Amino acid sequence: MKTGAPAAEAATQAVVQVVGGGTAQATGTFGFWFADQRWEWSDEVAAMHGYTPGTVTPTTELLLSHKHPEDRAQVAEAIAKSLRDAEPFCSRHRIIDTAGVTRHVIVFGDTMTDDHGDVIGTKGHYVDLTDTIDEQRQEMLDGTLPELFEARAVIEQAKGVLMRVYRLNAEQAFRVLQWRSQETNIKLRTLASRLIAELDSLPPAPPQVQTAFDHLLLTVHEQSGPE
User: Fold this and answer.
1) Do the Cβ atoms of 70 and 89 come closer than 8 Å?
2) What are 84-99's pLDDT values in tens digits?
3) Residue 83 dihedral angles phi and psi, to the nearest 5°
């Protein structure tokens, strides 16, 4: 049986294969300009909503029409707050696509600035957290994760932080970490270590915590830190 780093690497590769290789979940990008309330979304985000890429132009009204009725007011307030306070749009909610399928998504936002450093909008990522793992793959995942977490306690710590901040379950939190690892081409353990090391840099004020954490998650791969 492999032990130490080799075992951890083997476990990581097994998990990647179980949850779908390089695309563990659907991800896409968006941009929102405050001045004219103009939205742009990537082909992947269009597909999440059920549209063929390039067939519709996203607007606030269109986006809100796809929000789950129980989440619509929350998202509308998040967009309004983004406009009012010139801060990133961040939210975890449900959307209903054109086929009537409900999807669980989390939106990570960061500020968008002009050449003078003035905030002109928000940009970021949509991550589809909808559970699509079948029973056989779930059994494989359940059998692999304990070995991975035993070898890499820091990943468990980072996962716990995401679960707390974004109110995700364990599997969703792991998928988010894996997504950032793949997006930045940084090993999962390295990314988790840097994320935990940078937590003390976050402001203590509760209303600002999630926005600051979004920024950290999207930029931690640029920070120097443990490998």
Assistant:
1) no
2) 999 888 888 999 999 9
3) -70, -45
Rounded to the nearest 5°, which phi and psi values hold at 84? -65, -40
Q: State the pTM of this model.
A: 0.62
Alpha helices of the chain — where are they, by DSSP H? 4-18, 43-48, 60-65, 72-85, 135-151, 153-166, 170-184, 188-197, 206-219
Q: Which residues contact 138 (CB under 8 A, 6 or more apart)?
A: none
**Domain spanning 145-201 has what CATH number?**
1.10.10.10
Q: Which CATH number fits domain 26-143: 3.40.50.300, 2.60.40.10, 3.80.30.20, 3.30.450.20?
A: 3.30.450.20
Domain ranges of the chain: 26-143, 145-201
121, β-bridge pairs? 33, 112
Q: Is 4 exposed, middle or buried (0-12, 13-18, 19+ CB in 10 A)?
A: exposed
